[in-house]
UniProtKB/TrEMBL annotation:
Pfam families: Glyco_transf_9 (PF01075)
Sorted UniProt keywords: Glycosyltransferase, Transferase
Protein's recorded name: ADP-heptose:LPS heptosyltransferase
BP-aspect Gene Ontology terms: lipopolysaccharide core region biosynthetic process
Source organism of this protein record: Micromonospora echinofusca
Gene Ontology MF terms in the entry: ADP-heptose-lipopolysaccharide heptosyltransferase activity
């Protein structure tokens, strides 16, 4: 009989919305395997808003400030508030694993351990927890899903209904930005895709920076993350598709139930894919390191060794291929 835990602390302080979303199947699996447990989640804003109403999560904690050492302080505070029976963490910096191993009844502090180059990150988390006896075989097929309360669903539905009405073709949302320059699809490619979709009768909506001189579509209203998830869910209910690079909003769209076409360049789609249609630019790039992406020469400053004009892997994803993937979805 697997051991049950009454108080579980899950720590994800990697900083990105996508990082938290990839961990959600593990969070939900731990809650299912420990019915009645008090599961606390320590993560960053604004991603924390996505789990504040999640029935699986009893408490959400965030660092109190943005200065150096805030994450370590937050872990110390969470352990002082209640000693967890079990601590699980994706976070490996600033001595946080040592704090958890000393302050919890049991700690699993490296969900990244020994990843095969082609194994999806979220699957790796689930496999490590299964090897630790914390999840079962059935949990390995789980995919990220965000819990949307009624308010977020209604707000999302109102926004999309107002913008697209009753279209002849499903709407398409273009997520035109990414948190890092190295992941951005060229602006000219976005313009070509938007024109082709409009000619095909698809209402084109956008998330990201708006260029008043050359708008790509109608911007979705700015909203908090739960409401944005509600907007994506409304697009999905209309048979629509969300297109964008390897970035948090596209992962959020997938977790909200919308079909996605994700554009991968410096990151490997086999490791970071979203479960929809994942397109890989320059799949044979010799500089790509699937399990050590931060060590790639292009990563931090978007200086591509193959093309001084910008990431060659992103430019390699041509408009025709992306349009075909969108219409197929």
């Amino acid at each position: 009989m697997p051991e049950r835990y009454a108080d579980i602390l899950v720590v994800d302080l990697l900083g990105g919305i996508g990082d938290l979303l990839m961990l959600l199947p593990a969070v939900h699996g731990l809650a299912r395997r420990n019915p009645g447990a008090r599961l606390r989640l320590l993560t960053h804003d604004p991603g924390a808003d996505l789990v504040r109403t999640d029935p699986a999560v009893a408490e959400v904690r965030t660092p109190l400030h943005g200065r150096a050492g805030a994450e370590r302080e937050a872990v110390v505070a969470a352990l002082a508030a209640t000693r967890p029976d079990l601590a699980v963490s994706t976070t490996r910096y600033d001595g946080i694993p040592d704090l958890l191993e000393a302050g919890a009844g049991r700690a699993v502090t490296n969900l990244w351990r020994d990843p095969p180059p082609q194994q999806p990150v979220g699957d790796r988390y689930l496999e490590v927890l299964r090897a630790e006896g914390l999840l079962g075989a059935a949990d390995r097929s789980a995919r990220p899903r965000v819990y949307l309360d009624g308010a977020a669903r209604r707000a999302g539905e109102r926004a999309v209904a107002r913008l697209v009405g009753e279209p002849l073709a499903p709407p398409v949302v273009l997520v035109t930005d990414a948190g890092m320059a190295v992941k951005r699809w060229p602006r000219g490619h976005w313009r070509g895709l938007a024109r082709a979709l409009t000619r095909g009768g698809h209402p084109v909506l956008t998330v990201g920076p708006v260029d008043p001189a050359a708008p790509l579509g109608v911007p979705l209203p700015r909203a908090d993350l739960p409401t944005l998830a509600g907007q994506f869910a409304a697009v999905g209910r209309r048979g629509g598709v969300v297109v964008g690079p390897d970035t948090g909003p596209v992962r959020l769209a997938a977790a909200a139930g919308a079909a996605t076409v994700a554009l991968f360049g410096p990151t490997d789609a086999r490791r970071y894919g979203m479960g929809g249609t994942d397109l890989q630019g320059l799949p044979g790039c010799a500089y790509r390191r699937p399990t050590a992406i931060t060590e790639q020469p292009c990563w931090w400053e978007a200086r591509c060794p193959l093309d001084a004009a910008g990431p060659a892997c992103m430019a390699d994803l041509d408009v025709a291929a992306v349009l075909a993937a969108v219409t197929a979805r």
